[in-house]
Fold this sequence. Notes:
The structure is a single chain. This protein is mostly beta strands. The protein has one helix at about 5-10, and strands spanning about 15-20, 25-30, 35-40, 45-50, 65-70, 75-80, 80-90, 95-100, 110-115, 120-125, 130-135, 140-150, 160-165, 170-175, 180-185, 190-200, 210-215, 220-225, 230-235, 245-250, 260-265, 270-275, 280-285, 290-295. Helices cover about 0% and strands about 50% of the residues. The strands form six sheets. The protein has a four-stranded antiparallel β-sheet. A hairpin with a 4-residue loop joins β18 (about 220-225) and β19. The radius of gyration is 17 Å and the shape is globular.
Amino acid sequence: MTASAQTLSGWSAPRELTDRATRNMPALATNGGLICMAWRGLDQDNIWVSVSNDNGHSWTAQKELTDRSTANAPALCVINGRFIMAWRGTGQNNIWTSYSTDGLNWSAQVELQDRATTNNPSLAGVDGIGAVMAWRGLDQANIWISTSSDGITWSPQVELQDRATQSGPAVSGTNTQGGLFAMLWRGLDQDNLWKSNSKNGANWSPQSEITTSATVDSPGLTHSDSLGVFYAGWHGLNAPNNPNIFVSWSTDGINYAPQVDTGMQSQNGPALTPAGNGLLMAFRGQNKNNIFVANLNS
């Protein structure tokens, strides 16, 4: 059953995590009751991580992963009990991956030499179906995808020639409804959001435009089984909507509810993940670079 609009828009006041800061949007993923946060450092490009076991209300001390760095935000998902991380490299644009069971101790990084991007990649994992990686191309702006049964070994990249973006796309999935993935992205020649869905992560429905919602950055997207929806968040246009975070939700990844202005402000798009019976949002602050978090129904 889908939760009410009031439940889906009632975010808590944001809480500042004063021990961590970033130049991009952070990443979130939930593995059972454990939430992992990953982000690019502020004064250097290494990736940092932290975990929470109480729906994001308290966090472990930040941990720097000194073996890896990125030029954009990292991506996270969970499949088969593992956290999967993907990111754009520094010094070159190839995508790199790693995995972890606890969100703090990560496998050696692996370079995927067949794919590269100018922005942040996105990941989605669905147990029993597989994982999807989506990213903006390197020499052109089309969206590319790849799939995996375990988040470690990936299929050859496939170009989706019917869609392009100015920023990294967002993907999410659920094993409800027989399995369903959703994709959301910022348009190429204008800033409106576009959407598409897929039953297997490889074959996607035709793109369609959300003419009432626009962004200046990559959106965030997750699925909450307890709320029964795909849930999207994005940074509004600089004018006239100001840098507030807007949200919307959809049961099928195609038909979205009217956007809601949360009143929370950020320099980038937010990250979203399931937390308890609701959701957790994390974002870079508007007037400072520290990471803020807020909860919905959790």
